[in-house]
Every structure is written in structure tokens, then in C-alpha cells.
Amino acid sequence: MTTTTTSPVLTATGVTMRFGGLTAVQSVDLDVHPGEIVGLIGPNGAGKTTFFNCLTGLYIPTEGSVAYEGTVLPPKPHLVTQAGIARTFQNIRLFANMTVLENVLVGRHTRTKEGLWSALLRGPGFKRAEAASKARAMELLEFTGLADKADHLSRNLPYGEQRKLEIARALASDPGLLLLDEPTAGMNPQETRATEELVFAIRDLGTAVLVIEHDMRFIFNLCDRVAVLVQGQKLVEGTSEVVQSDERVIAAYLGTPFEGAPGAEEAAEVEAAEAGASEAGATTGAPQDETQRGTTARTEDGQ
Known about the structure:
Number of strands: 10
Radius of gyration: 23 Å
Number of domains: 2
CATH class of the largest domain: Alpha Beta
CATH superfamily of the largest domain: P-loop containing nucleotide triphosphate hydrolases
Mean pLDDT: 83
Order of helices and strands: EEEHEEHEHHHHEHEHEEHHH
CATH topology of the largest domain: Rossmann fold
CATH architecture of the largest domain: 3-Layer(aba) Sandwich
Strand order of the largest sheet: 6-7-8-3-9-10
Helix content: 25-40%
């Protein structure tokens, strides 16, 4: 279990994301400390990937802020990566017609200082930087067990190795925080176990990890802390033992309403407004205009 006495590498404060009138994420706070593995779980449509997109600059939060090592991040993905946050995606996003090595080299671009003219002229500085990037990429392929596939096209790799390649490419930017979005989706038990060991190895290098996953055994074996999102709000956060024993988490996964569930207050307000409108209509004897009824709908983001 990792201690959390140091300052967090990630601080998300009051992150809210609305799409028009739809609230996908609402007032979520989350810290991740150096060398820590934190899990983010929740039912389908709970807002997990939307929250990830807010952290990495793909979405600009409607409210709230995201800071890395105390500095608020600009909402631009390349600047977020440059600051020290890297991620993978639910759906594999490799360059299919590039080799395994070339895919990892793409991830190095934020750490190279050579510009356009240097690349065109291919002077000594460019050649040194190119050699250093290739050496680092090969280190990462060795680390992920893909060194012998360096010259293979990425599209020809088995599914589990394509997932590993995505992680290697993310690590190529030398991040202090790695975000993994469902890294074991579609994997068999052996591949899942190998991914678990890889994430532990990444943590041992000093890189913090924030992971979304639906495989509860994987999450609870892996993580120092787990946060649960339900209907875009953080329901509970704590150790695996605390989260597993929380009745609200069990109810959320089973679809059972529970006292204080997110959205209960809004539903009560809607019912009161409708009851008041019905009474007013009965008193006046006038037909009630449907457009005057107070209605509120909460729709989660589809993930």
C-alpha cells in the first residue's frame, strides 16, 4: 500500500461537465499522489470517461479546475501531455500502418527539442536526438515485453499486445501520471494478470496511475484507493475494503435506489412542482399547459 504524505501530482477540484442541459460530471474532486494507483469505477454511463477527458484537455470543464503538481493545466491535450500526464483510450488508437517502434517514437515528440529546420537539415543535433529517442523507445518495448516485435506493423499484433503498445507509447512521454481507460477490456484472464503486473511495474518506477475499469477483481487487487462515480457524482472514495462494503456502491451496481442517491433531491423537486401545478390547474379549472410543468432530466454521458 502506497503512502500519501507527499503533495498530489493531480488535483481535480469541483470538475463539472455539461453538454447543453445535460450534466455528465458534477462537482468531482479527486487527488492522486506520486507512486499511487487509484481506481475509478461506476456503472456504464456514470461519467468516468468524460471525467478523464476533462483531466486530459479533450474537454474544457464547464466548472472546476485540473492541476498537475500544483499548476492549473491549460485545456489543450498536447500541453497536458507536455506537463506530465499521458493516457490510453477505451478503444485502441494505434497507427495501424506504422511499426511497433514507430508508434512508440510518436509518443516521444513532446520530449524532443529539435525543430523543423533541424529535422530538414538532419544535422548532428537531430541525429543525436533521434538516436536517444530510439534508445528510449526500445527500453520501453523491452519493459512491456514487445522488444522482439519492434519491426512488426502494429495492426498485426494480437489484441493484448496492442494494449501493451498503447501503454508503451503513453510512457514514451515520461509522464508523472498515467491514465488508463479500461486497459483490460476484451482480455482473457492471463492477459489481465499480465496487465496487472505491468501496472505494478509502472508504479514501481515512480509513476502514479489512475485507472478506469469494469473488472472489479482487477481494480480491487490493484488499487491503493478507489473512487466510485454514479450519475456523474462521486459517491464514495476509500480503500478497496471500504468501497466493497459500502451498501450504496452495491445498490448502484444492482440498480437499486438508496437513500441520498444522486438525483433524489432533484426528483423530489420535480414531483413537488408537478403536484403544485396540478393543484393550480384544478383550482382554476383551466387545462394545464404541459410546457409549464417543471421537468428535469439527468442524462449521463454514453461511454
